[in-house]
Amino acid sequence: MSWFTQTIKSSLGKKYIMSLTGLMLGGFLLVHAAGNSSIFFGRAAFLSYAGHLHGLGFLLHAAELLLLAIFLVHILTGTILFLGNLGARSSRYAVHNSAGGRSWGSATMPYTGMVIFCFILIHLFNFHFTDHSRTIADIVAEVLARPFYTFIYIVGLSGLGLHVSHGFWSMFQSLGISHPKYDRVIRACAWLVCGLITAVFILIVLLLLVNSNILV
Amino acid sequence: MAAKIISLNLKVWRQNGPDKKGALENYRLENISIDMSFLEMIDVLNEKLTVEGKEPVAFDHDCREGICGMCGAVVDGIAHGPEKETTLCQLHMRHFQDGQTLTIEPFRAKAFPVIKDLVVDRSSLDIIIQAGGFISVNTGSAPDANGIPVPQHKAEQAMDAAACIGCGACVAACPNAAAMLFVSAKISQLALLPQGAPEREKRALSMVQAMDKEGFGNCTNERECEAVCPKGISIRNIARLNREFLRASLLSDEQG
Ligand code: FES
Fold it and tell me: Is the pTM of this model over 0.95?
């Protein structure tokens, strides 16, 4: 086996993959949140952002494919890890307890991952694989004016927030980046990034529920 | 001062052999002095069972002073019981209430098959240690003191890692039954010192490979291991192991 396959096949190698793909997905989320916040400035701003994005043409398609690949690697590796970990404890404890290490985020990683996956599918069918004869502003306004979708989006985004709340710090730990000098900074950034991303998306969803006119 | 006495309801995991089905059995114990250790409490239970003509509960122990790493069970879902940085043998009954019900189970992991009752086979940890191999030191007459300079803070960190007694509580507590805290402590104690430097990469690669082969789970940074470790080994060592393995994978001269 080459050193490369040996590395990525090992338990630590898989964690490196999760960290690196997680980092890229986190970067995407930040850009996505920044772009979407143009909705706060009304229809014109949002359409101009969408216009610029689509103006990238070939580059945008390349980025989409890359993103898809990163997603698939993250999901696939995560699933392998999840199944491996289930198998590593052959008999369950009669009494379950935490000595205080786990957080809600860490304990639910595989499940919030699945929630996010389903949410992304719904999200893509709402806005990507849909009839594009109308402007994206109209599509967004129409979908998110419906309380049913508000509910779905808030569930999905809460799952995302929980996932990132553990994932961001965990990513650094898995890559071996941990030191008393900057541990606090990493933890603070983890909460900041997680809070920021979730807040921006949820605010957009709530805003469009109470006032879909902002995009008309 | 008269010793305080408590009574307890115990639910103890009884399993006759590796392939047998186990179950929790109920026992009632009276007159337990709060000055007893947890293992002494099980001794009392075993004397009672012996007198009744029943099979005593099998459990591991040796030094009973928190240094050998032989003892260990999961008490109410927590490896080595509720006290921080305390082995089961050093846990005293004064931390429990009169009339309390305690569930006592063995360390559970695929890599730790139950031998009998609370006794599990932890030789997979030894196999990982063996995979780590040797370190190169000169034999012959004793070397000069301070012949090899070691910075004080590095020596401290190495000593903290070397405090690991290999009890396996980290594996028992890990939701993924991963052995990362153990392996990271063993890697760290040598990686931090100049004496461990020549075999540094080889050691990281082989020990991780052995760990995976023994069927331990994958670390997802849940931090439960650190919370139950009787020696207070920090997950900072796990970060170091992650670095060591990454470094070894990228830089070592060993051909894969
Ligand atoms: S019996 Fe030696 S550490 Fe508990």
Answer: no
Please indicate if any CB of chain B lies within 8 Å of the CB of A101: yes
Question: For position B3, what pLDDT does the model report?
Answer: 65
Number of folded domains that form chain A = 1
- Judged by CB atoms within 8 Å, which residues 67-86 of A form the interface with B? 81, 84-85
The verdict on the CB of residue B40 being under 6 Å from ligand 1 is: no
Domains of chain B: 5-105 (3.10.20.30), 122-136+150-255 (1.10.1060.10)
User: What letters, b where the CB count within 10 A reaches 16 and e where it falls short, cover A6-42?
Assistant: ebeebbbbbbbbbbbbbbbbbeebeeebeebbbbeee
Q: Answer yes or no: is A191 within a domain.
A: yes
Tell me, what's the pLDDT at A157?
96
User: What distance in angstroms lies between residue B119's CA and the mean position of ligand 1's atoms?
Assistant: 13
Q: In angstroms, what separates the C-alpha of B54 from chain A's closest C-alpha?
A: 24
**Per the domain annotation, does A91 fall within a domain?**
no
Q: Which of B112, B176, B240 should be substituted to probe chain A, the one whose Cβ sees the most A Cβ atoms within 10 Å?
A: B176
pLDDT digits (tens, 9 = 90+) for B132-169: 988 777 788 887 888 889 999 999 999 999 999 999 99
**Residue of chain A whose alpha carbon sits nearest to that of B85:** A99
Domain range for A21 is 11-86+108-215
In this prediction, the residues of chain B whose per-residue pLDDT falls under 50 are: 256
Task: Establish whether residue B89 lines the binding site of ligand 1, counting it when its CB lies within 6 angstroms of any ligand atom.
Answer: yes
Give the type of residue at B134: F
Model confidence pLDDT, tens digit, residues B181-196: 999 999 999 999 998 8
- Mean residue pLDDT of chain B comes to 94
Spatial distance between the Cα atoms of B186 and B196, rounded to a whole number of angstroms: 11
CA distance B196 to B50: 49
User: Does the residue A177 lie in any domain?
Assistant: yes
Contact B86 CB / ligand 1 (< 6 Å): no
Contact yes or no for B109 and A88 at CB 8 A:
yes
Q: Do A8 and A109 contact (CB within 8 A), yes or no?
A: no
How many angstroms separate the Cα of A204 from the Cα of each of A29, A157, A208? 14, 11, 6
In this predicted complex, what is the ipTM?
0.91
Query: Which ligand 1 atom sits closest to the C-alpha of B67?
Result: 3
Residues in chain B: 256
Query: Who among B217, B222, B244 is closest to A106 (CB)?
Result: B222
